[in-house]
Write a structure and sequence with these properties.
This protein has 12 helices and no strands. The protein has helices spanning about 5-10, 15-30, 35-50, 60, 65-75, 80-100, 105-115, 120-135, 135-160, 170-180, 190-215, 230-254. The longest helix has 26 residues, at about 230-254. It is elongated.
């Protein structure tokens, strides 16, 4: 089976691909085997994905070949059960993160769009916002604003539009919208003007809420604490707006 055929056999969701790798390593540690191609493809994907690379087990991170994994596990114990337990424990934190995130189809679409646009900058910012939605709502709000700022700056860089490092998010968005012909003033159809104006208001509100309840500023005696559902709303709005900007930039570029 060649590499493309191996990829066709992989589960679609990131969570299921991690489980697939875990099961393959369990087989490798006992009486079965995992193909070199499948192991290499999954290892490379997970080591390059900001959502998974920091929690990928050292067993995978340090071994490029499934036989090397088997060797490490054989040195750990001559019996199968301790090897299985070591694998399950090693994969536990990563699986917990992915299960807690409860990634929705919309999240996957945003992730794919942003990763293909700028995997190191924009996609990393999106992954950070996703990771924090449940466990760190305040951090998620701050990360959501950073995501939009990163998208706007990246598009302005591509478009050759200068901006000052000190520009705030509303100003960056207005400049980006004008570069993409998305400013309300650039349209005469009332429906479009209203929709685009509402987009501007969403961005302005995201900037304001970050200042109010994010973790970038100190608060007084009665701090406002966002709940996970509030963080999910903010992150999802930022993801939707970021995806809209990226897809519009691509359409205009093409």
């Amino acid at each position: 089976m060649n590499a493309s055929e191996e990829m066709d056999d992989f589960p679609e969701s990131l969570l299921d691909r991690v489980r697939y790798l875990q099961n393959g390593i369990v087989a490798q540690a006992t009486d079965g085997a995992m193909s070199e191609e499948a192991y290499a493809l999954l290892r490379r994907e997970l080591m390059n994905d900001p959502r998974t690379k920091d929690l990928l087990p050292d067993l995978i991170r340090t071994n490029r070949h499934p036989m090397a994994v088997r060797g490490d596990l054989q040195r750990l114990s001559p019996s199968w059960q301790p090897r299985r337990e070591h694998i399950w424990k090693s994969f536990g934190p990563l699986l917990d993160r992915l299960e807690d995130a409860a990634v929705a189809p919309a999240d996957e679409h945003v992730a794919e769009t942003l990763a293909s646009f700028d995997p190191e900058g924009v996609h990393r910012a999106w992954a950070k916002a996703l990771d924090r939605r449940t466990q760190d709502p305040e951090g998620a709000v701050t990360a959501a604003r950073s995501l939009l700022e990163t998208v706007c700056k990246r598009i302005l860089d591509e478009a050759g539009v200068p901006y000052a490092d000190s520009e705030d998010l509303p100003k960056l968005y207005r400049m980006t919208a004008e570069a993409l012909n998305l400013a309300p003033s650039q349209h005469t159809e009332e429906t479009f003007r209203t929709i685009l104006g509402n987009c501007q208001q969403v961005v302005n509100s995201l900037a304001t809420i970050r200042n109010r309840i994010g973790d970038a500023h100190g608060q007084g005696r009665k701090p406002v604490r966002p709940l996970p559902r509030h963080a999910a709303l903010v992150v999802n709005l930022a993801g939707a707006m970021s995806t809209f900007l990226v897809e519009t930039w691509r359409a205009r570029s093409e």
